Amino acid sequence: MSPSAISAVVAKGTNGQNPKLEFETYHNVINNDLTNTAKTRHNINPATTEPNPEVPVSTQEDVNKAVAAARAAFKPWSNTTLEERGEKLVAYADAIESYKDGFAKLLTAEQGKPLAQSYQEIGMATTWLRAFSTMTIPDETIEDTEERRIVLRYVPLGIVAGLIPWNFPILLAVGKIAPAVITANTLILKPSPFAPYCNLKLAELATHFFPPGVLQVLSGEEDLGPMFTTHPDIDKIAFTGSIATGKKVMAAAAPTLKRVTLELGGNDPAIICDDVDVEAIIPKLAILSFLCCSQICMMIKRLYIHENIYPRFLSAFTSHTASLKVGPGTDPDVFIGPVQNKMQFDKVRSMYRHISSEKWTPALGGNVPDANPEGKGYFFEPTIIDNPPDDSAIVTDEPFGPILPCLKWKDEVEVIRRANEGKWGLGASVWSKDIEKAERMARKLEAGSVWVNSHFDVAPG
């Protein structure tokens, strides 16, 4: 991976100069200084398994320095106005947008997603930054009588640590940067060890727009996360990742009573009623099932299709999915890139091996790739499993890879019960021409976000 340095004119930083950003070398950002570490490491391009550049491996000393800088920055930053902070977010968004070519190439090289999807992620990130720049934080009057007036105020917390996953490193970093910065907190990003590159460059670019200590980043190995979650002077942890790691984050934060926000995994069901226009919704459902090689927590992971249309739906869905091109994200017209890392490759490969051992029926795909993908990339063909048992791993677990079960249903009460089974509850959807019926069913689904005739439809605010 060696995206060339970009020389586009971008939004001016606080010094009035156009910030320069190259994509060749990678540093921590502590107190707006680009710093190195004694030890370095590198990740690999998941499409080629070739090495990406070296990145820092941070120590407890680096964490302490960043926390001290964030604490020193907090008081003056919290005294800035909402308007000032919003203006900086907009200028920062403009700068990211001006470097979108460099960021897109970098994102595809470290994450594996097709270039078109990398550009989409960058566009979503700048949209979020600009949306949060308009945020208002009004006082709320709870009671106003002759005896007393009670006012609810929202005040900054202090230092926030943002723990970022590897599937959407730009968007999910911005999803922590924007709300933390606009509400006058200071933030330290900890990228996933599998995808540190874009986060390092986001923070480097931010040095041109925010005061020292407001936005920092530390790259490291698996031991870096606990240094944040147990640090006594960090006030909040914002984590996106797996349920297993989320439990560890919450437990580690408990002794210091940190506030914790966890956005964890999902096994989202989509219920397809028998009155839908099959041909019209198939392309949407394929995108919502296989985007980013299905490595999105709010992707459709279980498709429940009414038995009256099941054969026709399955035929059309498999035919359309088969047309989705698999390959390196830099190739034209690719829709499904590789799985992001070897750990996830092994997990997804284990699910594919269940096809023969559990005697599932693949309607599409099903071939198990070689256990050693070196030199080949972490690729899987999209696979659709025809009506597996409800207690199958493909139904009960989140594969986080391009393998999807299609399941028949007949009775409304029964399908809602099946959709609500399990430990997951992130998202769900109902698809029908009968909006009244769809809304009735949607209200019975136990999920944080429930859509009608849509899915993964998220926007700031």
Report on the structure:
The chain has about 450 residues and is of the alpha/beta class. It has helices spanning about 60-80, 80-100, 100-110, 115-135, 170-180, 195-205, 225-230, 245-255, 280-290, 310-320, 340-355, 395, 410-420, 435-440; strands at about 30, 35, 40-45, 50-55, 140-145, 150, 160-165, 185-190, 215, 235-240, 260-265, 270, 300-305, 325, 335, 360-365, 385, 405-410, 425-430, 450. A seven-stranded mixed beta sheet has the order 16-17-18-13-12-19-20, sandwiched between helices. A five-stranded parallel beta sheet has the order 9-8-7-10-11, with helices on both faces. It is globular and about 65 Å long. The model is unreliable at about 1-10 (pLDDT under 50).
Spell out the blueprint of helices and strands.
Blueprint: E1 28-30, E2 33-35, E3 40-44, E4 51-56, H1 60-78, H2 82-98, H3 100-111, H4 115-133, E5 140-144, E6 149-152, E7 159-163, H5 169-182, E8 186-190, H6 197-206, E9 215-217, H7 224-229, E10 236-240, H8 243-253, E11 259-263, E12 268-272, H9 278-290, E13 300-306, H10 310-322, E14 325-326, E15 334-336, H11 342-357, E16 362-364, E17 383-386, H12 393-396, E18 403-409, H13 412-420, E19 427-431, H14 435-442, E20 449-452
Parallel strand pairs: 7-8, 7-10, 8-9, 10-11, 12-13, 12-19, 13-18, 14-15, 17-18, 19-20
Antiparallel strand pairs: 1-2, 3-4, 5-6, 16-17
Helix pairs in contact: 2-4, 3-4, 4-5, 9-10
